[in-house]
Amino acid sequence: QSLMTKLLSSALVVEKQPVMASMPSIQQPLVLKTKANFTVGLRFLVNLEKFRCLLKVKAVFDKDVAEKTKTNGFRHFDFTKEPSKVLDVNVTGDCLVAEFTDLVNQESKKRVRKSDESALTVTEELHVITFVTCFQHAGLDCHIQASTLPVVVISATGQLPSAWASVMWYNVSTSEPMNLSLFSDPPRLSWPELSQVLSWQFLSVGKRRLDDNQLSMLREKFVEDPDGFVHWNSFSKGGCQKNVNVWLWLSGILDLIKKHLADLWRDGLIMGFVSREKIKELLWEKKTGTFLLRFSETNQDGAISYSWVEHHNGETQVHSIEPYTKSDLEKSPLPDEIYDFTSRVHGNVTRNPLLYLYPDVDKDVAFGRYYYGSDKQTLPRVWGYLPRRPINVTDMPTPPPSPPHGQQVPLDAQHP
Amino acid sequence: QSLMTKLLSSALVVEKQPVMASMPSIQQPLVLKTKANFTVGLRFLVNLEKFRCLLKVKAVFDKDVAEKTKTNGFRHFDFTKEPSKVLDVNVTGDCLVAEFTDLVNQESKKRVRKSDESALTVTEELHVITFVTCFQHAGLDCHIQASTLPVVVISATGQLPSAWASVMWYNVSTSEPMNLSLFSDPPRLSWPELSQVLSWQFLSVGKRRLDDNQLSMLREKFVEDPDGFVHWNSFSKGGCQKNVNVWLWLSGILDLIKKHLADLWRDGLIMGFVSREKIKELLWEKKTGTFLLRFSETNQDGAISYSWVEHHNGETQVHSIEPYTKSDLEKSPLPDEIYDFTSRVHGNVTRNPLLYLYPDVDKDVAFGRYYYGSDKQTLPRVWGYLPRRPINVTDMPTPPPSPPHGQQVPLDAQHP
DNA sequence: ACAGTTTCCCGTAAATGC
DNA sequence: TGCATTTACGGGAAACTG
């Protein structure tokens, strides 16, 4: 329903009313898209039956922000629908809750743009949603309110990776509840701080963290300063000398994992982050047909390649296949690509050069359970037509190597 | 900009004012999508300089429709933006024009639905847009207006084929300018009438009409009545005994041609509409490797297959490949699929069984100019990676045939 | 001219209504 | 419940805007 995860369990914090017990609860920043619906759950942590259905809570976008933070130049948003709800008891009966749905925010006309060069990008703007209500208790007028943690507002899904970068950076660098100008003077992060968040991202999309080898390769790409700190601009906008945006690059890989490689990543079959030099070093001494999986370092949209080693006539070669992109893997999953991959050399010799996953696991042992047909039925076939399936082939530019171990790998083996 | 073609050159017809010369101009029905912009061009055919910038024209949706046609039960729409424009002289200076852009129509709340079973589907509802203006001339108050031909309003692109069916049917069956209730009692069409429209559709998307053989095959599918007429319900909703909707089926093929086969269709390389029996008959006597292209008769989304003949040991076999869908052809175009297609049999023998396009044109002569790389450069390759390309293979269920003509078709030939 | 940002819209999926 | 129709929204591209 919402663009990202739902913001649940925001606390309705009682201001200036110690009579009301309140509990800080899990809040998290969020990325919101204009003109799209999202949902916010809200809990009033004191369940006084007498309040039931008496508290009308209103959501306000960027309440008092101009006065509080003087963050001029930010865009202004408003909810287009009436954003009010009445608190009611929840299912377990322990508190009053309201779920805001169908909140739609849209930029209002006025926008005071500072023309100076230090203006932030839209994904660096931080906003808040504040929930306010007032009621009478013990003869007093009580005004209470609660705010979300900072929120980034985008207008197209293509801005989501940048927005998420801001969210991560904010979370790691500060525990302030509402420093909306953080990116006017962005703090730097130490590599231990940053690497932990990055590792969490992989845990989140692929149920497995980054290991030490992977992290040390990433450190090379992310840390430019000799002091071991990472600067916001270098992280989110592409550093000085390098022309790639490291976060966008990593973000593409996270998306690739989420969409096509979740199982393989979870099971640790993807080495992923290895330099080209390291690949050669790792594979050089291994037997012909040993291969490993590695993410492309140049493709900004997330791509994965396999590299394998061949020994012929005392000569050793390590090859890497043209990386598979998301649209490639939509056609057929990586395990099937590995199973069906075919190299061709002069004389009509065809074979699959991929035999053992590094260090020495038989390909079918490692990937067998993921092959098409192993957990699904065979493809539905239309009567009267010969079934076909897509495979990828490469025409080896090198002279024909002799078959490994003196045996030809049969190509006509049936798919499991 | 607009969903379909722009509606240009609508005539501003002068009503009750013979002083104003008016010219009937090309109007065409249109398919409009709610909440989407479209453009209408309007010409005032008398260029009286004195009118310049004095005529304010307003667009009205379904003006006077209820009184005129008593078509209750239709949805009601309104423009959400102010749909008024001032007429100005056009570039050639021969008339006054206005171009309406950003017209957005959205269903208004009220909708009187007749609950009887004869209710029309939304794509059978016909609507009109009327342009009105008034001015003073020769001391008289003049009210003039012009209307579009009937328009079908849809809410999602998936309704477009059905809507287009209505548009075609209307055009062929009547020359009345505004019979919005046509589908309450839809007229039938003779096969010559219908087949001509269908043929035009292929001319429109693929620059080539249907030939007599193709039409005679389609006649079998479309004409159910012995009297040779086609009924609207059987055309647009799937006839009595058959469970396929013939127009949607044909519509999918038209879309397939438009997106992936425009060149091949234009050049007549696709036989397309042939029955399975006819295929066997045609190919039976031809030499091994003769093939033809034919649309799937079962796939509703548009799919194309090739069938080829093989003679082995005095036995003749005709095979048809699993049809290629739009998403298949997005991966690699049909000519490349034909070039790279590979069949595999026991013993690791691989070959391409497609040699001659029916009746006996060498495959590369027929399709060579379309192969990838013939008019584009070779694929851009990332340095350090072995290029790969996708091909389709089939595992022949039959005993291994001997190579045709005693020669092995080399598979390692380089792509042109 | 250009880059950042938003709008537009197809196509698919989900929700809605009858 | 099932089907017809609408809404929602990701993704890519065009349009916008300073």
UniProtKB/TrEMBL annotation, chains A, B:
- Chain residue ranges for the region called Disordered: 393-416
Q: What residues does the SH2 domain cover?
A: 265-374
| UniProtKB keywords | Activator, Coiled coil, Cytoplasm, DNA-binding, Nucleus, Phosphoprotein, SH2 domain, Transcription, Transcription regulation
Q: What cellular component GO annotations does this protein have?
A: cytoplasm; nucleus
GO molecular function list? DNA binding; DNA-binding transcription factor activity
What biological-process terms (Gene Ontology) are attached?
signal transduction
Quick check: keyword Transcription in the entry? yes
Kindly list the places in or outside the cell where this protein is found, as annotated in its UniProt entry: Cytoplasm; Nucleus
Highest taxon of the lineage? Eukaryota
Keyword Transferase in record? no
Say which family it is in. Belongs to the transcription factor STAT family.
Q: What is this protein called?
A: Signal transducer and activator of transcription
